[in-house]
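ESCALATION

Customer reports they have been waiting on this structure for their group meeting. Please prioritize. Original submission:
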Amino acid sequence: VSPPLLRPGDTVGVVAPASPFAYDELTEGLRVLRTDWRLNVWEGDSLRANIGAFAGPDELRRTDLQRLLDD
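Update from on-call: job pushed to the front of the queue and completed.
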């Protein structure tokens, strides 16, 4: 079973369910999704979070991931 291919106007979500990273390193990839592929991009709060070795507290990362699964 294969999922349908993404089409312009579809929505994708981007989250950081584990470790943090520099948000500016992601901007080019987000630009490709939005401009080149014409997708709607939902950015989870975890993308800009940083608590030690993690991209935000457990609850924030769990909520972001759960939203992707629910939507």
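Sent to customer with the following note: Residues 24 and 48 are 10 Å apart (CA to CA).
Escalation resolved.
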